[in-house]
Amino acid sequence: MKASLHHPLQAADVIQWDHHCDVAVVGFGAAGACAALEAARAGASVTLFEMAGGSGGASALSGGEIYIGGGSDAQTAAGFSDSAEALETYLQMAGGPDADADKCALYARNSLDHYQWLKDQGVPYKGTYVPGKVIEPTTDDTLIWSGSELAWPFREQAAPAPRGHVIQHEGWGGGRKLVDILEARTVEAGVDVQCNARVTALIMDGRAVAGLVVRQDGQERCIRATRGVILCTGGFCMNEDMLRRYAPHAAKLNDPIGVNDNGSGIEMGMAAGGDAIHLDEFFSTCPWIMPDSLAQGVFVNVAGNRFIGEDAYHGRVSRTMLDQPGGHVYLLVDNATFAQPLDIARIEIAAVGESWEEVEAELGMEPETLSATMRVYNRNAAQGRDPLFHRGPEFMTPLVEAPFAALKLDFSTSYFSFFTLGGLNTAPTGEVLDRGGIPVPGLYAAGRASCGLPRWGHGYSSGMSLADCTFFGRQAGLSAARNEPADAVSNRSIDVVSAE
Amino acid sequence: MKASLHHPLQAADVIQWDHHCDVAVVGFGAAGACAALEAARAGASVTLFEMAGGSGGASALSGGEIYIGGGSDAQTAAGFSDSAEALETYLQMAGGPDADADKCALYARNSLDHYQWLKDQGVPYKGTYVPGKVIEPTTDDTLIWSGSELAWPFREQAAPAPRGHVIQHEGWGGGRKLVDILEARTVEAGVDVQCNARVTALIMDGRAVAGLVVRQDGQERCIRATRGVILCTGGFCMNEDMLRRYAPHAAKLNDPIGVNDNGSGIEMGMAAGGDAIHLDEFFSTCPWIMPDSLAQGVFVNVAGNRFIGEDAYHGRVSRTMLDQPGGHVYLLVDNATFAQPLDIARIEIAAVGESWEEVEAELGMEPETLSATMRVYNRNAAQGRDPLFHRGPEFMTPLVEAPFAALKLDFSTSYFSFFTLGGLNTAPTGEVLDRGGIPVPGLYAAGRASCGLPRWGHGYSSGMSLADCTFFGRQAGLSAARNEPADAVSNRSIDVVSAE
């Protein structure tokens, strides 16, 4: 059997090492760039392999938002106080039922230093705040609310502050600029960047990762990485087979956010003995809060019932939508809050009426379902309270101005973008852990190839993945650079079990 | 590093083989018994290792119900017609978004032959039918409705028939008797049964499984299994660490159904290169339909909304409960339907009132939430229809006789039993597949160590796991017995990748 993503090559079977380096990094998104940069600065010779023709990955498709807190210049200038404790609590809550307490604590204590580090690399931050519910700023402002900080139950346990620190950039898509800056620093630091280089297998020396096989110019080359291999290959939102086996509820969505997010690093890491956890988890969102007056709407499922405080982060609301039965949900708005949804969202107007009873009837719903929901909602909204789902008072607008409309968000036809959150289990150092919790020698991972700070679709907040990519990418680079080099292709080190 | 569940021993490192057999089976529940039996009858020398002092596993804790259809004697005698096609469709629907079409088809075509095989082993079936909604018969009758066949949406696509074929047995717990019978046949067939034998690692010869390490009498012994190892070790409902990493939503439940269901086979299979899929899925249930008048009740969540047709299989209803926010749900009943819940279920009466409005108020719920739900429900129930959740007409009893009560099912304190449904990905032959879909030579799995027919908590039906254990256990046994023996500890067979 040929070596592959699923079957590492044994070092003893390598006829010739075609290239030597201390640290090999796979993938040139934000995680890979940060890992390579720190490894090189720590004195390691670093080779970075990227499958595509250049840097980017899913990071370059993002808004370039990084989740940072604890009292940054921008937070202070905008009049917000924040603390490392509040940030840590928020990260813990957002991490869901198996949040990684160590990573949350480490990141929370160091996010301001990390922010400074990003500035030191040349990432520009204007330090100005945009209020309101925005997905990313289209101006060059750089601080926004990017999660569920103000929403229940988060606001009750973690003192809220805006923490989405966005690269200074006009318009959408600051992620490309962020990666460009990190790429420039990476090259300056002497990292040997090799693009159009597809890594096809790891090379193992007993339990340890010794290098990798890469396909370049039609040839397979064996690369010896003395101190370690760092997998920064992204998630698996573009691998239909993996989605089916591990995250079938994401498989029905139509817009994977990725470039080459084929799960190759997760597969290679598992084949090397690494544990992959929470593979069923995914982030998803539908851009229903643009135009922003729609953010005052009320969501109901096909039974006419609300299911969440609609003021939570759009990803949390969208992920909860997907839990609802019937394949679609409705966003209810009145004349005052109605706006034509973005074309791209493919949200259609399903019913219009002079009363909620008429909308209910036009949707073919039972009398006293949707209309009863809206009667309760409007009664409470008039008092600025939501005893059912704890929506914040500023979003409790009574929907009482005719005509009324129901917009339909269909899970299979509306625009639901998504990416996966499960991946290789790593220590805060970036070391890949095996199923017994022991590091696989010589193997590191960061970004969405790993299971990091974001690991629960219902808790995701914008900037959390890039925070994880950049910060824990750096840790992985440092750890690999400091790793004691393994003896050149030593013998297997597993104990002999004898009978007797 | 010592060999362990997470790190196979290499055959080259075995100093002495302490025992030789053609086929080694690990675990002596129903799956292991059937695997061993078929392997032995096919001419293989079989050794079966069981960690406990005797046979049983989770199978012996069950009701001994097996999901069989297509027109059995019992179905026909009770006046039901059924077909292999209807059975296959039902299994497909019950398997959820990644149902295994090949296994569903193979089982549906062969379930009557399998039923005959079970009878041939001496499993008694009286062939008599018990109507109604029962968890298992307490009489010695042997056919019941054991799933969601009559419930929406199943009834619309798969012609309903009762398919729970239960071993003839007075009282609860026929599973113990089923395993005893299979054990007797296993011993008669010449299987070498070794109890108090804990398998601690697999032994690999390159990519192939060559044997296993077992701890017996304080010693570790190396067992050579020439034709294969069959993992029948059950799921991981009793391994808190695995639950946290792979199925954190099950980790909060308090009653794992298992004996030694510690996931050891899944871990060893993964360490040998096997793929494990749908590890997040689990069956769960709370015994709320005993006494059976409670089955006429209505479930609402903390927002006062219904969330499922309550006539679905109790496991499907219970699993959907756990998706609801707030940590508990309420079962609403009136004077006519009220009965004291089973003590064991730890379901408490949370509110009583002369009207649904009073119950609503006593629960501290918003006016017009629960009471509006019940107004709609009672109006529709009077007409025998449920346009919202499609509950069958025979379960649409208006709840109109005061006093009214809300029973509270708390997810953390009520009795929620559960077991895991994810496991090693296997072919219908029982071969364990690697992440590329290629069999791991010499490795087989069956029962809840594998991901079989049941793989979606919301679709589980009673008898589906034992059907899978027994039928696919047999396939695994046959496959292993027919496997070409590997050359005694051959060299690794992986291709050498050379660079030019």
From TrEMBL, chains A, B:
Where do the FAD-dependent oxidoreductase 2 FAD-binding domain residues begin and end? 22-452
Q: SUPFAM superfamilies, per this entry?
A: FAD/NAD(P)-binding domain (SSF51905), Succinate dehydrogenase/fumarate reductase flavoprotein, catalytic domain (SSF56425)
One short Pfam name that applies is: FAD_binding_2
- Cofactor(s) the protein requires to work: FAD
- Keyword Zinc listed? The answer is no
User: InterPro entries, per this entry?
Assistant: FAD-dep_OxRdtase_2_FAD-bd (IPR003953), FAD-oxidoreductase_2 (IPR050315), FAD/NAD-bd_sf (IPR036188), Succ_DH/fumarate_Rdtase_cat_sf (IPR027477)
Q: Which UniProt keywords apply?
A: FAD, Flavoprotein, Oxidoreductase
Q: Could you tell me the superkingdom of the organism this chain comes from?
A: Bacteria
- This protein is called what? FAD-dependent oxidoreductase
Organism per entry: Croceicoccus esteveae
